[in-house]
Design a protein that fits this description.
25% strand, acyltransferase activity, transferring groups other than amino-acyl groups, binds coenzyme A, 240 residues, seven-stranded mixed sheet, 7 strands, GNAT_dom, 23% helix, acyltransferase, alpha+beta
Length: 240
């Protein structure tokens, strides 16, 4: 199906400080037709991180997501994130290689009672674990794990144009189908200080954001204003 037919939003010139991103929303509306794949010999798990602490979650999310410009969980209210992780309906399953966390899949069961939907909120591998057959196995594991529970009617996942190029074809091969695509502008987290300037090296840095105008009462009058000099923009200091 062509991108235009899928209701991709029309966007014009990219505003300063923003990045254009294409998000693909996908779903699987019937259980997998193939048996679960055996775990690759190098992997242990998945292990459910019960009551996953914020520190452990951020270690996984930040280490995996830095390369791919994952910023949502970094910028959200951290108390809210802690409460979300304490909810037994949000599951973080971690795989290990050589005794070290190698990747995780995050399953969100909160919509199951309402309409039978389960969401894969995140699937990702540590940089050193990519391309070793672990991702397709972890996704296959998650799909079977979800569909063995009663009352599941659909499993959703999404991917964006910042993600690893293997993600979308992998989801299609695993049995997900495209629902819709959405094109939008998102804040470049390297300008807002949410991520270090070295994050997402495959995504060119957005144009510098425009300066935020100060409120009228704070603006200097013509008499006390210093001579105007061009502002040198640098990304805000990164705050983990
Ligand atoms: C996406 C991800 C989970 C895939 O896992 P992986 O272990 O790297 O992938 P696998 O080794 O299992 O290979 C999966 C398939 O992708 C293919 N692939 C690898 N690199 C690819 C690329 N650059 N473009 C397209 N396909 C690619 C492989 O050939 C393989 O195909 P096959 O099953 O027919 O052999 C993993 O790369 C990852 O975590 N990336 C970073 C985080 C991310 O982007 N997550 C997805 C968020 S939606």
């Amino acid at each position: 199906m062509g991108v235009g037919e899928m209701g991709v939003g029309q966007v014009g010139r990219t505003p300063p400080g923003k990045l254009p991103v294409l998000i693909t929303f996908m779903e699987m509306a019937k259980p997998p037709q193939t048996p679960p794949r055996p775990a690759p010999g190098i992997a242990q798990g998945p292990v459910l991180a019960r009551n996953c602490t914020l520190a452990y979650y951020r270690f996984l999310y930040d280490t995996i997501g830095e390369r791919w410009l994952w910023s949502l969980r970094r910028s959200m209210d951290q108390d809210e994130l802690s409460r979300m992780l304490a909810d037994p309906q949000v599951e973080v399953h971690v795989i290990h290689v050589d005794g070290m966390p190698a990747g995780f899949v995050e399953l969100d069961w909160r919509l199951l009672p309402a309409d039978g939907t389960v969401a894969i909120d995140y699937l990702g591998l540590m940089p050193w674990a990519i391309g070793r057959g672990l991702g397709s196995w972890l996704l296959d594991w998650a799909v079977h794990h979800v569909w063995q529970r009663p009352r599941v009617r659909r499993l959703t996942i999404n991917t964006c144009s910042f993600d690893h190029p293997a993600a979308l074809p992998l989801y299609l091969r695993t049995g997900f189908r495209r629902l819709r695509q959405e094109r939008k502008f998102s804040d470049d987290p390297r300008w807002t200080g949410v991520m270090p300037p070295t994050a997402g090296p495959h995504i060119p840095l957005a144009e510098p954001p425009l300066p935020t105008p100060s409120p009228p009462e704070m603006q200097p009058t013509a008499t006390d204003a210093p001579p105007r000099r061009p502002i040198a923009f640098r990304p805000l200091a990164y705050r983990p």
